[in-house]
Amino acid sequence: MPVIPDWGKLIVRMSLAGSVLAASACIQSRPPTVVPEPDELPRRVVLALDGLDYRDVQAARTLGQFAAFRPPGRLISTFPSISDIAWHAIFGVQPPAGYQRVFYSTRHNAVLGDAFDAIRPIEYEERMDLAFDAKFHHLGAYLMSWSTARREIDTDVEAVLHTRGRPTVYIYNVGPDALQHTRGDVAQYLTYLDRALVSLQERYRERTGRALEIVMLSDHGHNRASQASFLPVAESLRDHGFRIARTLASPADVAFSVDGVTTGFGVFCHPDAEERVMAALVATTGVDIVTRRLPENRFLVQSGDAIAEIEWRVEAGRNLYRYVPRTGDPLQLDTVMQRMHDTGMMRADRFADAAAWVRATASTAYPAAVVRIVHGHREATKNPAPILVSLRDDYRVGLGMVSVANRMRPLGGTHGALSASNAVGVVMSTFQETPDDLAMTVRAQFGGFDDLREPVFRKPGLFIGTSAALRADRFARSRWDTRVLTMADTLPLALLTLTDRERQWGDDSTHTRVAMRMQVWRRLGAGRRDLLVTEQSVPLGTWSRSTDGRTYALPADSLRLTGLEPGAPYVFRLWMDRFREHQGQWELDGTRDLLSLSLRAARDGVPWRY
User: 63, 212, 388, 478: least buried by Cβ within 10 Å?
Assistant: First the structure.
């Protein structure tokens, strides 16, 4: 039975909660081109081609292909050099929950996700104007790689010519990565792509009288190591006295996830065991480099007996990095650093910024490794690992659904490692020079990719976030007022997204009020009925609303989404109740069933999803 809320009391409560909030600056938008009319074709297309290697593009250009493009630059990936974290960095959207979609969560102290999470779209895909986000497209691409890659290109061309009112159309293709993983013919793919883009330019010019601006970029390279052996990393750790676990219950437990075939991954363990786990990994045949996060913004780098440290600091808003060899030179930077020092690219104290490290090391064995290691341990995901592993090209690791698909046909190369053979993608355009760059900074070359599409909400959603995460999100922070952006960073926020249909149905008016009713049920399992823990009804008008009207925010404790039993499974059911005033009383006029979520409470009693 819906609860008729006390409108006045809850409005007062929200006013008090909002009294602690302060202002936040908005991002200044820099459109890359003139904003088109509603019926006008886009001026620019950004082709995000997964796994396209810089070397393959260079080879294609020697054959006269991509002649309309300026010389390509190296786009150096993240570390690990894998798609989810790299694309999020390239487009400047919030980092994903983990390095891959099955991941270890520090909030839950558990490995989260399942096989189907690997094929569900996440933010960078949802912000594309065109991305094949059908459930089995990614998986199918690794089984029928050439037909999928060719179909993507054909669809891309038509999509550009049928898009209206967008300054830039963003397109994501998984095809080249699938070809690389499955021994496909990348040269054939590039020939087909080049012809398609030439045709697109001709058709576009016929319709508009101008040239279409094209940006082509990729998230990582491919090591081409089709004969690599699978590394039994789990067995190696067990030989050193550790056990692979989904939860870290003791110093002997180690958690990691590898959703696919890769050469780079994160490892989680008890803090007291980090040194021993790192030593065990370094001693494993096939491991090239292991890095570990240390206190005070320091990072240990080891390859065999060679050990170095990286130091990171921020001065006047600039990120600065120093590489200090201790025993040997695991990143092979001694000669490079001397040149950086002699040419003024490095300060006297041996610190240099990211741009300097890119210029000096883009063509080395471990390009921009100093910067990428720090990013990988700090910002690449919402759950950065204390230990990162990079394999030699003659080894790889593989688990998960994509790995199964890869094993159903001969394996090609892969990626993930710190080395250039894994990490160097491409960036080039038809209208400006594109120097070598990092995944984390390349968007500045093109106006910031500020006109990315807003994700489309096909159904209502509810998740828990924080004001700190909203401030860090360059798209979100311009849509929230100071009440939300300056709530305490430790305060969990319930963030509700509604579709246009729900918003129209639940629009408050003079004689209509809407409330969100939440039930929290504790799952008991073993054939027992779920237990209703609490039911709360909160007027929608008391929620803070984003300026685009699509998202609502409320302290999570207002819906009793805090203080739950850590680790316990719950079901959260949400309804929208509409009330109409009748003879001075509010009477229920209708109810919409919005959602039902099954989540576990994290260690702090909050049902975080990451």
Answer: 63
